[in-house]
Amino acid sequence: MAKGDYERALKLKESGLISEEEFSKKETAYLRAQVDYQKALLSFTGSEAKVVVESATKWMDERGKLHVRVSILYSARELESLFSSGIKEELFPVDFLKDMKNVYISLLSDGFIISEPYQRKIERISLGERKEVDFVLLKDIESLEVSLFYSGKEEKRGVYLLKEASTNIVTMSSSQFSQEADLGGEAVFDLSLERFTREGSDFRLSVIGLPKEIACEFVEPQSSARLSQIRFPEGVTSMKLKLRLFLPKNPSSEIQIDKPISFYALCLSEEEWRKVREGTEEKRGKGTEEQRVKTYRDLLVWQKSMELVTQIYRITETFPKDENYGLTFQIRKSAVSIPSNIAEGYGRKSTDDYIRFLQIAISSLFELQTQLEIALNLCYLPREKYEEVYESSREIERMLSSISRKLREK
Q1: Which residues are paired to 192 by β-bridges?
Q2: Deepest in the core among 87, 144, 186, 217, taking most CB within 10 A?
């Protein structure tokens, strides 16, 4: 009815039979009727054009900064159906809904903006289109609110952050970045670990930069178990550990009263671990033999053998109980024999005795390799774990052979 009145008034205006004021009234009534109709139809279809948060993913860049990548979608199923049904534009002029302009996005926690920049703006997003924006996190959190402002209204969505799994990184942090401890006492650091990694990856725990007089250990808080490696269970992205440092009773050239000691606690993938060890070995190689090795504990082959023992004890924990006095006992005995004979040989006065104990260590290593293969054949040991431990044993074998050869050449 309003449209008919408007069209008649338009013809009368063109013929000069109606005043401009009367025509304006008819035009205003027609436009108001259009708006009312559109509102009624939108209400009828139960649809309203919305910008929705599809995902919010936390990730880490090469410099260690945390980011959040937010993906949004402009969606309205009923409106998309109206467009695809070929509804007549004169009945329902909805072209203005095909694009949403000026969408503002912010990240909040407890009412505070926690990202840089504070706000991102998307100039235009089309119906059915997805767009992504990236923020740098100013505070490390697991959940936040995504604030969307568009069409004169604000909407907030509380979300748990997904984790980017394309990298192989575990971050480690502690609120206790500095502590004081007495000589003969200990310092304990509470550590928070967060995974940005593929499923099933193992990580090595290590501390570098500490004087050799300070012993240390990583501990699982609930069980008090000492750890040298960790693996995140499926679906778990964070973990709590403790790092305990044991100070000697007496000061030394590196440990002095009121002198700070800086060190690094690391959680590294196998590849990163190898790089660190190679760098450490290269650094050690710059000194003289006397500077590098003062006790058997300074021998790299002894250190690696001790790591191998830890590996062996962990993998044999899953062996059948009826092997406790059989294969489990034999494998652990062979593993323990390797660093034990290296240490005993180093303590002997003659080179010949040293070489003889190194040969015993090599023999124990061959026994261990054989016993590991037996465990593999009996399906006590996954092939992946067998290959990892076997490669560690081969590295020790090569080092022992090299030391023996050099001692004979003297």
Answers
A1: 173, 240
A2: 144
